[in-house]
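Supplementary Methods S3. Complex input for the glutamic acid-bound model.
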Amino acid sequence: MSRPVRVRFAPSPTGPLHIGGVRTALFNYLFAKKHNGVFYLRIEDTDQNRFVSGAEEYIFEALEWLGISPSETVGNNEKFGPYRQSERKHLYKQYADELIEKGWAYYAFDTAESLENHRKQHEAQGKTFIYNWHNREKLDTSLVISTAETQKRIASGENYVIRFKTPVNETLHLHDVIRGDIKFETNLLDDKVLYKSDGMPTYHLANIVDDHLMETSHVIRGEEWLPSLPLHHLLYKAFGWNAPEFAHLPLILKPIGNGKLSKRDGDKMGFPVFPLNWKNEDGTISSGYRESGYFPEAVVNFLALLGWNDGTDQELFSLEELVEKFDLNRVHKAGAKFDPEKNKWFNHQYLQKQSDESLAENFKQILSEKNISTALSVTDEKLIKIVSLIKERANFVSDFWDLADYFFEAPTTYDEKAVKNWKEETPNLMKALIVELEKISDFNASALEEKIKPWLLENKVMPVLRLCLVGALKGIDLFQLMEILGKEETIKRIEKAVESL
Ligand code: GLU
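Predicted complex, serialized as structure tokens:
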């Protein structure tokens, strides 16, 4: 690697950042850190028609949540700034002019209407209209009118665009880090618009100029940009600049069926395709991983494995480990299937790694939202204990309530099937049990197990005791349960069951 590594994430703020975009940002981040390089972020907002308010803030917030913020960007370490293309507007004209001077570009005056007519005529004959070498000299361009006439039309305020003059009859042999050697025939390319008379460059010109000025060493981006590679390569050539290396990441595919993962797949199957919640124009919310209860570490981990692995079976990687192991050469060409169920598994794994204290803290919030906090004086210590006992069955903190509600609310109904275990002699046995329980002064799981388990087994009342305490035949170890409920509450629940069953 000859140049210092400088890679970028270059999103257009046209809506919430899709999870595929986040994966692109992550791979750039990992590559930069691995090579002690710089990961910067440039906002590509030259298409003002597609501007969506809040989208830029959303991008920064999402990356921050995931712990993969850029080290140079808008408002932060603007070494090559500005980092927002709309603020670099004044820069691009000279480069468009340079291409015209060198014969790599030309002015085109075709109106939208006339282009539409061409399109329709072609369609009528079953053909597609492509603006390129085969017709550019029959269209309204500076290639066929004199320089003086061109200047006159521009000066009179006529709308124009500057198009790239793609070379004819060339085969381009290009290289992609992930895909290897790729051939492109220039005759199949269209002459893309680079600049418009409203003073705005298009994506292609701004992207290349900025990648050059910001000294980008590698362009790592989604596969959907692969068709732009020949044009970008030719632009570098036209300017006489060193091109960066290119790596096009594989598509992220639907969980079932073919094609690219879309927001609709998420809506249909009930999983987020965005990192954070996003409020749509119609007021509806598109759900995000953060608000759905995912840990950022889990999201980073599952995204890293969409198109990459380290060559072993290892699936759990911390961000630091990813930085150490990430290798662009190990990124696959083939699309990566998105597996929402597996993503839950990742969250489950990361949930187990959290401390019981911090999980209890999160659970407390849920309890207070349910106005539960005072219902059954649960001390922090008990809450931590509860969490430690139930977490292995949870994927999310939000699962805790269903797994632990019986600690906080005494049963008001009893599971019908389980009630079948309640026999004629059960009330008397339960009363006898209460007498035994009253005698136990060290009301903890091991003492309880030692002192009453044999009796419970002998009388076959383990299930009915559980029924008294939980209202159903579910829940954690019976003796742990009694310890957490405490003597008073345990006895109260048994008495209540005896009364109502
Ligand atoms: N602005 C482009 C996008 O929205 C950037 C593509 C590239 O990385 O070149 O993804």
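The two ends are 77 Å apart (CA to CA). The pocket of glutamic acid is lined by residues 10-12, 44, 203, 207, 221, 225 (CB under 6 Å).
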